[in-house]
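Give me C-alpha cells for this 345-residue protein.
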Amino acid sequence: MAVAYSDVTIVVDERDDLFYTRAALQAHRPGEGRITVQPTPASASPAALAHDMLYALGKRLAPGPDSPDVWLDSVNAAWLAAAAWGVAMGVRHVVVPRAHLLTIRRIDQLLAWRESTGAQLTLLWQKAPRGLPPALARVERRISGRTQFKALLAEPGPIPARPSFPPAPPAITGAAATATGQSPTPQPRGTRAASTRPGRRAHPCAGALATAQLDQATPALEIASEEATALAALAHPLIAGALSVLAFTRAGLGSLRFTRDLDISGDVCVIKLHGVGHRHCPLHAVPAWARPLLAGARAHHRLMACSPRESLFSPVMLAEARHLRAHAGRLPQLDLSLLAGILVP
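Here you go.
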C-alpha cells in the first residue's frame, strides 16, 4: 500500500500525559474540518474503527441485531461510507488518540482512509516509540512537545474545510456530439431528442446542469429541523441521500432508480428525477440541510469509481430496497414508509 507519509504525523507521548488527550478532544471541530476519533477499546468487530470514524463524523448506526445498518458491519462498506462522509464534509485533519492500542490491520485501514480522502492524519502514540509497527516507523514527521502539538492542531490542513465537487459533464447528444467529435449518448426507447436552445425543453435525459439552464426547479418541500437532523445522522451516505430526496420532493421510490451522478448539479443545489420511460423528469431545488447528504451520496458513488451516467442509488435499490425501507420505517415523523413502499417496475 502506497502511503503519502508527509500527511501522517506521529505524536510520541511516552509518559501518557493527560495534556495530549485533552488537547486532542478539544480539537474536535467538524465545522472547521477537524475531527477527533476515539477508538472503541477492546472491540473485536472488524469494522469497529470505521464505526468510530462515522461516530466522530456525527453519524449513528441503528442499534439491534436486525438493524438496517447491518451491512455496515462489512469492513469495506463501513470504511467506504466513512470516506464518503469525510470527503463530503470537507474533513482535512483527523486526530486519533491512543493509537498504540490499535492493531496493525486497523492502522493500515486508517492509512488507506487517509489515502481516499486526502486528509491529514495525526496519531497519538502514548507509549515508547520502539513499539511502532513498520507502517508507522517509516513516517518521517514525529513530534513530542506540547508546543509542537498545539501548533500542529492550529495548522489549516491539506484540503479546504468545505467540500468542492466539480460538475459532472452533461450528456452530449445529436448535433452537439457530432460537432465535438464525441459519440452521441444512447437515448432510451420511446423518447425523442429535443433542441436545447433557449425556449425549448432540454432532452429528458440531459443532466441537471443542462436542464437548469432551461427549466426552473420546483421548490423543495419544508420539513422540521428535528427531522432534518434525524436524516443527517444516518450512517450510510446512499441511505441518507435517498431518504432526503424522498423527504423534500415527496417523489416515489421508483424515481430514485434512474437518478444519476450528473442529475445533481455541481453545487448540489438542484437534482433531476426521472419517471418511467423518461416521460416526466422534473427538476427539484435541494434545500440547504440536504446538500451535505447528497454530497455524501455522490462522494460514495465516485469513490466506487462509477461513471457519472450510472445510477447513483442502485446499491440501496437491491433486494427490494430492504435497507432503505427499514430506515424509512424508523422515521415515522417523516411519513416515508409509504413512499419507500412504492416500487415502480
